[in-house]
Amino acid sequence: MRVAVCQLALAVGNIEANRAAGLDAVNRACDEGADLVVLPELSDSGYVFASLAEARSLASPLSESATIAAWVSLANERDVAIAGGWCELGADGRLYNSAALVGPDGLCAVYRKLHLWDREREVFLPGDQLSPLIEIDGVRIGLAICYDLEFPELIRLLALAGVDLVVVPTNWPASAVPEGERPIEFVKAQANAATNGIWIALADRCGEERGVSWVGYSTILDPEGFPMAPPLEPDGPGMVIAEIDALRSRAKSITENNDLFADRREDVYELTVRSSSSR
Amino acid sequence: MRVAVCQLALAVGNIEANRAAGLDAVNRACDEGADLVVLPELSDSGYVFASLAEARSLASPLSESATIAAWVSLANERDVAIAGGWCELGADGRLYNSAALVGPDGLCAVYRKLHLWDREREVFLPGDQLSPLIEIDGVRIGLAICYDLEFPELIRLLALAGVDLVVVPTNWPASAVPEGERPIEFVKAQANAATNGIWIALADRCGEERGVSWVGYSTILDPEGFPMAPPLEPDGPGMVIAEIDALRSRAKSITENNDLFADRREDVYELTVRSSSSR
User: Fold this and answer.
1) How many CB atoms lie within 10 A of CB B253?
2) Are strands B36-38 and B81-89 parallel, antiparallel or unpaired?
C-alpha cells in the first residue's frame, strides 16, 4: 500500500478553501500512485477558534458534511482511501474533534479524539471509544488524532488489537525545541511505532493561524520507528509518500528470543480497554 | 540532587577489574559533587557470557556480593548513593539480572530485571515485581534495567506511583541506525521521560565484548524528554553529571488545561499492577 501524508496550510473559517486544499492534495497524491491519503486534523474548519460559536458555525454532522461527501466522491473517482479530520456536530448537539476514513465505496470509520489539547476543551467533547480497525488492501488501519499519540496506552491497545498502520491527522502547535533536538511530539510518535512495531502516518499543518504556528514534521514512520523520508519542514505545504508493508508490522519478533508483544509482562501489569468503551 | 551517570568499558569475567572501574567512576563523580551515581547493567560480571556456567561463576548473593559491599562502603565514605547492576545468585539457586541502590546507611533497594533481552533467557530468570520507590534527598527514585525501558507500561506505572527519577543501568547492544537518526532505544527513553514528566538517568557501556559493541548514549533526560547534556559517544568511557529538581517532575501540568496524568482516559483504558506483583 502506497501511503501519502499531506501537510497543508489552512486558515480557520475558510472552510471551502480548506476543503479545496485537501482535495487538491489528495489529487496530487493520487497522481503519485497513493492508495491512502492522510490529511490534517480539523482540516475543513481550521483550529484556532475565537469562540465556541465560531467553531459551531464551522461544524457539520457526519451525514451532512460537505467535506466528507467530497472525500467519498473523490475516493470513488480516484479509487483511493482518504483519512482526515473535520469539525463534527454530533447528534447530541455537541462538537467533536473527529476524523473519518473513507474509501471508494463510502465511509469506513469515524473516530472522535479521546485526548483534548488545551483550549479544545472549551469547544469539544472528547470521544469515548478507541478507533475501530478497518482493513484496506490487507492493511489494518486505525485512527488517532494529535495529542492522542502522547498516550502510549492508546497506541499499545490499537497495536494489541492488530493495527498495522495508525493514521494521525494532527495540528501540533509549535513550542520551543532545544537546539539539535526534534520536537518531542515527533519523538513520542517514533517511540509508539517502534514499541509496537507498527506504521504511523502523520499529517500536520504548516504556516501560522491567529498567532499559533505548527510543528510540521509530517511523516511516515516505519515499524522500527524511523521516518521513511525526512519529516517535512514546518515552513510550507508538502507531501511524504511511501510504500508500507503489513508483513513488517505483523512480524513482532525482534530477536530469536524476543517479541514486542510476548515480552510484555502481563503477569506483572495489565492494560485493558474498559468494556463500556469497546466496540 | 546532583546525579552522575558513568559510561564504563568493562570485560566479561574480569570481576575485580570491573568492580574497580565502577568504584573509580563513583569516586570521580563524587569529586564533581555527585549525590547519586548510576553504573551500567551487570557492572561486575560483564554481559556476553559464553555459558550459564560462566555466568554462575560470576554471580553472588546479595548478602555476599563483594560488589554490593564495596558500594555500601564507598557510599558511606563519600556520603553518596550508588545504583548499578550486578549478577545476582538468588536464594533459589537461580541467576537474576539485578540492580541495587545503596546509600550511606546501606542497601536501599534491589530490583530484578523484568524484561529479558535475547540470550539473557538462557542465563537469568526474570524478576516478578516492579521496583520499589526510594526517597533520597526528597527525590523518589525507581529502578529499571535496559530492555525494561522499552515497555511504556512499566515506566508509566512507576510514574503513577510517584517516581521522580528512574535510574537505568543498561547494556544496549548496538545495531544499525539510519543516518541522521538516534538509536531507537534512546528515542524510547526520551518518550518515557516526556510522557510521564520524569527524570531518567541512564548509564550504558562502551567498547566491545566478544563481538558485541554498545550504543553508548549514557544520558540524563529531563521531564520534557531532552538530554541535559549531549549523550555520550560509544567510543569510550565518560560521565554526564547534572542537577535534577523534583519540583519539575512533580509538576504534571503542561498547559492551563492539560495534565500528563489527569488527561489519561481511565474511563476508556486501564493500566494496573497485578496485585500478586505489588510490594
Assistant:
1) 13
2) parallel
CB B138 within 8 A of CB B246: yes
Residues present in chain B in total: 279
Side chain identity, residue B237: P
What is the distance, to the nearest Å, from the Cα of residue B5 to the centroid of all Cα atoms in its chain?
Answer: 9
Nearest by CB to residue A178, choosing from B153, B226, B272, is: B226
Average pLDDT, integer, range A180-191? 98
- CATH, residue B143: 3.60.110.10
> Which among A251, A246, A177, A250 is positioned nearest to A217, based on CA atoms?
A177
Test the A interface: residue of B187, B226, B279 with most A CBs within 10 Å: B187
Has A108 been annotated as catalytic?
A: no
pTM for the model? 0.98
Residue B132: burial class (beta carbons within 10 Å; 0-12, 13-18, 19+): middle
Q: Which three cell numbers stand for residue A68?
A: 466528507
**Is A252 marked active-site?**
no
CB B23 within 8 A of CB B70: yes
Q: Nearest-CA residue of chain B relative to A269?
A: B273
List alpha helices for chain B, DSSP H. Answer: 15-31, 52-57, 66-78, 152-160, 184-196, 246-250
Q: How many CA atoms lie within 13 Å of B55's alpha carbon, on the beta-carbon side?
A: 24
Whether residue A225 contacts residue A62, with contact meaning beta carbons closer than 8 Å, is answered with no
Name the residue range of residue B62's domain. 2-277
Query: What ipTM was reported for this prediction?
Result: 0.97
- CA B175/CA A4 separation, integer angstroms: 29
Q: B243 near B2, Cβ under 8 Å? A: yes
Q: How far apart are CA B269 and CA B63, in angstroms?
A: 41
**Cβ-proximal residues to B24 (8 Å cutoff; 6+ apart), any chain:** none
Q: Which residue of B has its CA nearest to A121?
A: B257
Q: Give B-chain residues touching A192 at CB under 8 angstroms.
A: 191
Residues of A in contact with B126 (CB under 8 A): 265
A118 and B265 in contact by Cβ < 8 A?
no
Cα B173 to chain center, whole Å? 15
B6 is catalytic: no
- Altogether, the residues listed in chain A come to a count of 279
- Position A277 pLDDT exceeds 90: no
Residue-level pLDDT, tens digit, chain B, 279 residues: 999 999 999 999 999 999 999 999 999 999 999 999 999 999 999 999 999 999 999 999 999 999 999 999 999 999 999 999 999 999 999 999 999 999 999 999 999 999 999 999 999 999 999 999 999 999 999 999 999 999 999 999 999 999 999 999 999 999 999 999 999 999 999 999 999 999 999 999 999 999 999 999 999 999 999 999 999 999 999 999 999 999 999 999 999 999 999 999 999 999 999 976 544
Looking at the structure of chain A, the number of domains it has is 1
